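Pilot study result, target chain (210 residues):
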Amino acid sequence: MSKSRKPQKQRGLSFLLVALSITLLIVLGGFFDSFEIQGLAQTPPEQIPSTSGRVRVSEVWKKVYEQLPNLPPENQYISQETGKVAEDNTLISRLIRYHVYVKARPTQYRLDWKLTLADYLGVNEPMLVLNYPGQEALKENPLERDQKAIQQLNRTQRDALVNTLVSLFNPNAANIQNRTIPKPNSSSTPPKTPPGLTPLPQSGDADLLK
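Predicted structure:
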């Protein structure tokens, strides 16, 4: 009887080991999948759709600095790959990547850009160091200094930044906002007076009494 029980115990232990191995593989698989998803957020596609076609995200930050040259560049960080200063890895380029790829927020609305700035100001959603653009390419994570740079901007500067980003990502929207309302025609005839009511005096009626 004792001999027959040993194979059963061995089979039970083998089954338990197999079950534990499968569970471990599932857990590790989920971990690596999430790691890969985070990596994709740091290496986004070059273009995104907009109301005026497709916009190259990697080019927008340059136009922002052209229109707002007083914004801090914050491009003094060292590249992990080359060991040199990554001059194109700027504050605004990282802010745009954070907005578009990390938070997946639309680019055509001022409110969404204000939410992103609120993240930097520390009054909205918390910003994670491991997810912040630049951590995968720079020797030093720029998140803390980027937050301080945005916090040092005054309200007028932040509004100008939001308006510039919206206009660059959606040029058609800016054109619509700039349209003027046509003035009424000054030579239009006055409205007719309903029957039974005394008409109000009009401009020039006094000349008829002379």
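One observation from the pilot: Helices lie at 2-42, 57-67, 91-102, 110-121, 143-151, 155-169, 171-177. A full batch analysis is planned for the follow-on phase.
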